[in-house]
Design a protein that fits this description.
It contains 7 helices and no strands. By secondary structure, the chain is mostly helical.
Length: 189
């Protein structure tokens, strides 16, 4: 369903739990960036009217999630602030073909949402804090739906078989990006 080429590596959950404050701050930034990306696609592609409503709705939901993560940070006494971003999304987007940039960007967004869903499920299952585990469990359906939205939108640009082939190619690239050594713990490292 999520079209990922490889599961999260062993040890990521333990690292995330050991650096939970940082992962929570990063999660807030990820939700904010997801909203910004959806709106940016609407602005950059005014000719693609079929993007407008689905991405507007998606952006609004991402902002709600951003605010929910801010609430979690506040309840835990964690200050939201700047954080060095993971290279994940940038490295993933490097595989976007200039001549098919919108198609590939939509599929990269789909994979980011899929990986978020997978990681949030892992956190929901591993967190000792029942309230936080429930919070992550509640986000799973939205993340999976966002993944599907981006894949469905890509099918406006190419036949389903071509979209699925390209999604599989990008998923292999995404798995390779995650296999690269990174000296930080983030939601997508």
């Amino acid at each position: 369903m999520l079209n990922l080429a490889a599961p999260t590596r062993d040890g990521w959950v333990d690292e995330a739990l050991a650096h939970l404050d940082t992962v929570l701050i990063d999660h807030a930034h990820c939700e904010k960036k997801a909203a910004s990306t959806a709106l940016g696609l609407i602005f950059r592609h005014p000719e693609a009217t079929w993007l407008v409503r689905p991405l507007s709705e998606l952006a609004r939901e991402e902002l709600v999630h951003f605010e929910q993560v801010l609430d979690v940070l506040e309840r835990r006494g964690i200050a939201f602030g700047a954080l060095v971003a993971s290279p994940y999304a940038r490295r993933l987007r490097e595989a976007c073909r200039p001549e098919r940039k919108l198609l590939d960007t939509l599929l990269c967004c789909a994979l980011i949402e899929a990986r978020s869903c997978e990681r949030m499920k892992l956190l929901a299952e591993a967190l000792p804090d029942a309230e936080l585990a429930s919070f992550y469990g509640d986000l799973l359906a939205s993340e999976a739906r966002h993944h599907t939205t981006y894949v469905d939108l890509a099918e406006h640009l190419a036949p389903r078989a071509e979209v699925r082939t390209r999604l599989a190619e990008l998923a292999r690239h995404e798995a390779a990006v995650l296999a690269e050594p990174v000296e930080m713990v983030r939601l997508h490292t």
